[in-house]
């Protein structure tokens, strides 16, 4: 017995061909989650109320930004690099803000921003003071509970490694040496060594 080749009628091929062509046009699913970053330097501050600046990066565009569940406005500009701002109101010495961003595809990201309030000035302990003619040499230890950021002697910033306890040495000229220590929150302590 001889078999004939099997052919589908043209009407049966059209839906399969249409499906094949449409699958080439199908959009890919957006799986890129928005990237939240805080651009203002916050973490430790002297104030209970500070302005927080940030951006959200997304490939299709940001539709919403919230802080602790409350929507905040996205500043004018591109939705792919959305800028936002909000003001803190910290009760006590610690605050924590949960920032969430959502894009047009429904993807969400979360960033938790802890902020500490530090109103305590750093300490300065002078360990050495020498005067030889017009030359003054000073050495000491600067300390702070949140970290020493800068040490200045007569307005000149010393090269230090920031931390909770920082040893310093400087040589200057004059009658005395004015030492200024600044902590990470911006609090200052001053000492005139003579």
Question: Strands, helices and their partners?
Answer:
Layout: H1 10-23, E1 35-38, E2 44-45, E3 51-57, E4 62-67, E5 70-72, E6 81-87, E7 94-103, E8 108-117, E9 123-132, E10 135-153, E11 156-157, E12 163-173, E13 177-183, E14 188-193
Parallel strand pairs: 2-8
Antiparallel strand pairs: 1-3, 3-6, 4-5, 4-7, 7-8, 9-10, 10-11, 10-12, 10-13, 13-14
Signal peptide: 1-28
Organism: Deinococcus aerolatus
Protein name: Bacterial Ig domain-containing protein
Question: Could you explain the architecture of this structure?
Answer:
Keywords: Signal. This is Bacterial Ig domain-containing protein. The chain has 2 domains: 35-117, Immunoglobulins (Immunoglobulin-like), CATH 2.60.40; 123-193, Immunoglobulins (Immunoglobulin-like, Sandwich). The chain contains 1 helix and 14 strands; from the N terminus they run αββββββββββββββ. It has one helix spanning 10-23, and strands at 35-38, 44-45, 51-57, 62-67, 70-72, 81-87, 94-103, 108-117, 123-132, 135-153, 156-157, 163-173, 177-183, 188-193. The strands form 3 sheets. Strands 9, 10, 11, 12, 13 and 14 form a 6-stranded antiparallel sheet that branches. The protein has a 5-stranded mixed sheet with strand order 2-8-7-4-5, with no helix packed on it. 18% of the residues are buried. The mean pLDDT is 88.
